[in-house]
Amino acid sequence: MLSTVEIINLLQEHQLLQEVRGTDNQATFRYVSYDSRDVQANTLFFCKGNFKPAYLTTAIAAGATGLVTEQPQIADPELTEFVVTDVQKAMALLAAAFFAFPQNELELFAITGTKGKTTTAYFLREAINAATNGKTALFSTVNTILGPEPEDTFKSALTTPESLDLFKNMRTAVDRGMRFLVMEVSSQAYLKNRVYNLAFNYGSFLNISPDHVGENEHPTFANYLHCKEQLVINSRHVVINAATNHFQDVYFAAKATTAPENLYLYARNGTQTELPVQLDFTFDSEADTLTDNEIYLRSLTNHAQALHLDGKYQIGIPGDYNETNAVDAIINAGLAGFTRKQLLAGLATTQIPGRMERYVSADHGTIYVDYAHNYASTKALLQFLKSQAPTGKTIAVVGSPGNKGIDRREGFGKALSEEADVAILTTDDPGFEDPLMIAKAIDQHIKHDRVQVYYELDRKKAIQKAIQMGTPNDIIVVLGKGQDPYQKVNGVDLPYPTDSTIVQQLLDADAGQD
Fold this sequence. Notes:
Keywords: Cell cycle, Cell division, Cell shape, Cell wall biogenesis/degradation, Ligase, Peptidoglycan synthesis. Pathway: Cell wall biogenesis; peptidoglycan biosynthesis. InterPro entries: Mur-like_cat_sf, Mur_ligase_C, Mur_ligase_C_dom_sf, Mur_ligase_cen, MurE/MurF_N, UDP-N-AcMur-Glu-dNH2Pim_ligase. It is found in: Cytoplasm. Belongs to the MurCDEF family. MurE subfamily. The chain is globular and about 75 Å long. The longest helix has 14 residues, at about 375-390. By secondary structure, it is an alpha/beta fold. The strands form 5 sheets. Strands 11-10-9-12-8-13-14-15-16-17-18 form an 11-stranded mixed sheet, sandwiched between helices. The N and C termini lie far apart (about 65 Å). The protein is built from 16 helices and 26 strands. The model has no long low-confidence stretch (mean pLDDT about 95). A hairpin with a 3-residue loop joins strand 9 (about 135-140) and strand 10 (about 145).
């Protein structure tokens, strides 16, 4: 519950409150919501985002007795209005309070980066979950895990949830016995103040490259970088991949707000970093194939050596580009007091739904389903797979989302030109855009003297075409959606079987014809 007095005190403390309208200074709110379809008696309702007056009418009729808004909404003495300067910040503050500050009962790991967030989060969660007796929750792009039962795991709607959902999920996790939480923190989470006033025990910065700049995302790359850097500023211990682009910016942001003994830098052995800094950890690849991935981690400084993490680690997900993610997870776990021995089994068996899923066809080569959705991740994936099948073709099925990340289209075209032999351009969450126009935008950046390009906007048919084209030595890569069970079209989530399901169904049908 939240009382009017508590709300006023919190909002004033953060200099957000402009005015309180209404006469009931003793009001108590027993529910909170920003969705007019989810309102109960005595609900504190947040007028956020693309708010419309009709939503308020619905909310009041359903039982809303308090509003948090940036603009006064209605002159009703029985309705308490809290007029604020920033409703998103206010919602984060009040949601944390309503759910009794669950972050204080969890040890929080936060991970940001243009690519690798989900992989790192899964590595870390799987590495420590057994050692915590199953008491590690997960908020990721793929799934949310709030407890030990099957119903506690469900598909995530956002990489980092809206603040109200975030703290609600934290409270649920605590109530179900969770004591650790591994979460991805997107740049949008800071842009939209979803994690306003939230501090993390451990924060990781993996990398940054151009992405998420567009009409519904960041206005500029500088803004994108600024939002990413907020995670290191708001974390007590910070782990940074020193091989990231813009390392100087990220490093100095962390250094300004982090005690030297709580700041850890790592990179692959032999990496030339932007700044001449002392690395705390380096690692080498010991094996790197589709079936065997092993690294060796070395500590180079006293405070790194104190963690006792040196040695070999088997990694459950292939690809040299995943080794950096595993190292980040290992260091974070070590900072939280976990031993190398405790981490070995979980790292070796980590799997991620919709990431590097492998399907073998005797006649059509090997098919991979992966969520890669920008230049950096697509290039890294294709480059690795191509190295594993040098005598065959690399066939890629790819689209790009509508109304966001416009620069991804050029990135896809560039990655395909550099690493693919055949590209089949298709539909991937087109939103309110024409998927054909999106495909053509990608195609403008593909070098046709190197890559054969086909258009097939029906995604299932595109996957089928790719598999039928494949020969035994070929690699077929289905990019972008992984196990997403919908296509976002004109504001509606249309059911979609998932790339993984379609691939399996096509292979089963093919096997049945043999």
